[in-house]
Amino acid sequence: MKFTIRKANPEDLDVVASLFDAYRVFYRQESNYEKGKAFLKERFLNSESDIFLVFVDDKAVGFVQLYKLFHYIKLEKQWLLSDLFVHPDYRGHGLSVALIDRSKQWCEETSACGLMLETEKTNDIGNRLYPRCDFKYDGLHNYYHWWR
């Protein structure tokens, strides 16, 4: 399957918001296109994340969203691979791997030490994908959340 990947910009907001909404539904969230679009618009306007889109036949079919973090041991910038999604109709063609590879390239371009991510234990697709892409499982840490 022929595809291209490029960095998203504010003019891509509608297409990114549509994919983002589908991504959230995948994670059992209620569809809320408008709120998701406003969330992404704020990320674009404040330069708070970097998003890459994958296109097949000029149609955006997936994305990855990265947030800048800082690694306290390496004392360097790193990227949080926060969101990765490929439309179900386009899965199985290496597009997720291509988005991850582009994210690794972004680390090189931005002099970051690497990528980190978190996924649900029940995400069978991701839990098979990430080790294939040379991510190492960190079984030493527990991740906790505090919500306001």
UniProtKB/TrEMBL annotation:
PROSITE patterns reported in the protein's UniProt record: GNAT (PS51186)
Keyword Signal applies: no
An MF annotation (GO) of this entry: acyltransferase activity, transferring groups other than amino-acyl groups
InterPro entries: Acyl_CoA_acyltransferase, GNAT_dom, Streptothricin_AcTrfase
Domain N-acetyltransferase: 3-148
Cross-referenced Pfam families: Acetyltransf_1
Keyword vocabulary terms for this entry: Ribonucleoprotein, Ribosomal protein
Signal peptide from the UniProt entry: none
GO cellular component: ribosome
Tagged with keyword Protein transport: no
PANTHER family in alphabetical order: L-2,4-DIAMINOBUTYRIC ACID ACETYLTRANSFERASE, N-ACETYLTRANSFERASE
Protein's recorded name: Ribosomal protein S18 acetylase RimI
Organism of this sequence: Sunxiuqinia elliptica
